[in-house]
Amino acid sequence: MPEMNILIRTAAERETLFIALYKSVFPSVARYINKMGGSFDEAKDIFQDALVIYYEKTAASAVSVNSNEKVYLIGISKHLWLRKFKDNNHTTPIDGFDITIAADEDQPSESKLMHFLETAGKKCMELLRSFYYDQLPLADAAKLFGFSGVRSATVQKYKCLEKVRETIKERSLTYEDFLN
């Protein structure tokens, strides 16, 4: 996915960026708004507003995106949807909302987490990254890593996660040990 940190010089480059962001992020926003009782058209409106806000803020260098663009756009979309909900005086039970960690709350340290993920080995890291970060389907991961099928890839992914869990258990680590 293209990054906003590069200067967009032409309308064609901007259009390419918006199309890429739309394809990669809009499905998640649409699922969220649908889950919250919104329509597909409302999801499109919210996402387009989020794209405009994102573009204006990053183009003006008013904001630095510390996470990836997908997470940032989803966050803007959720905020816009909740604000719209509030403005329209809709009521929704509290259990319908996702709980998110505020930026000022304690968050796990990425370097500490990476250290324990690396204990599983290079191949495990690549498999876990392709599945969780790159969101590669297990069928594609099976082919990429040379497994005989999806079941083999699933078992190997499970074994990789168990290696990490075992390391954490051996060292009697708790969630607080991963905080900044």
Describe this structure in words.
This protein is 63% helix and 0% strand. The protein is mostly helical. It folds into 2 domains: 11-96, no CATH class; 110-178, Arc Repressor Mutant, subunit A. The longest helix has 25 residues, at 11-35.
Summarize the entry for a quick read:
With 180 residues, the chain is mainly α. The protein has 7 helices and no strands. The radius of gyration is 20 Å and the shape is elongated.
Q: What is the helix fraction of residues, given as a range?
A: 55-70%
Shape label? elongated
**Tally of extended strands?**
0
**Count of domains:** 2
Oligomer: single chain
Report the span from N to C terminus. Answer: 29 Å
- Biggest beta sheet attributes: none
**What portion of the residues fall into strands of 2 or more residues?**
under 5%
Structural class, by secondary structure, is: mainly alpha
H and E order? HHHHHHH
Q: Indicate the mean pLDDT.
A: 75
State the helix count: 7
Spans of at least 5 consecutive residues with low confidence: 1-7, 101-105
Work out the radius of gyration: 20 Å
Defining traits:
Arc Repressor Mutant, subunit A; mainly alpha; elongated; 180 residues; 2 domains
What's the arrangement of secondary structure elements?
Blueprint: H1 11-35, H2 40-59, H3 69-87, H4 110-118, H5 122-133, H6 138-145, H7 150-170
Helix pairs in contact: 1-2, 1-3, 2-3, 5-7, 6-7
